[in-house]
Write a structure and sequence with these properties.
two-stranded antiparallel sheet, mainly alpha, single chain, 2 strands, 2 helices, 67 residues
C-alpha cells in the first residue's frame, strides 16, 4: 500500500513538473521570437531602414533627433 501511495505521489509531482517545464519552454520560444524581432529592428535602425511613427523611413540620426 505504501508503495502505491508513494508511486502516485511521484506521478503527481512528475505531472506538475512536466507542466511547468512545458510552460517554461513556451515562454522561452516567445522570448526567442521577441529577441529576433528586436535584433532585426536594431539592424534596420543601424542601416537607416527603420520606419518612424509616420511609417516613413528614418535614419538613426533622425530617430535620435526625434524628426
Amino acid at each position: 500500500m505504501q508503495d502505491a501511495a508513494s508511486a502516485k505521489s511521484i506521478e503527481k509531482k512528475l505531472a506538475t513538473l512536466t507542466t511547468e517545464l512545458q510552460k517554461l519552454k513556451d515562454e522561452s520560444e516567445n522570448d526567442d521570437k521577441e529577441l529576433k524581432l528586436a535584433q532585426q529592428h536594431l539592424q534596420e535602425i543601424n542601416a537607416g531602414l527603420s520606419k518612424n511613427e509616420d511609417g516613413a523611413y528614418a535614419s538613426l540620426n533622425d530617430q535620435l533627433m526625434g524628426e
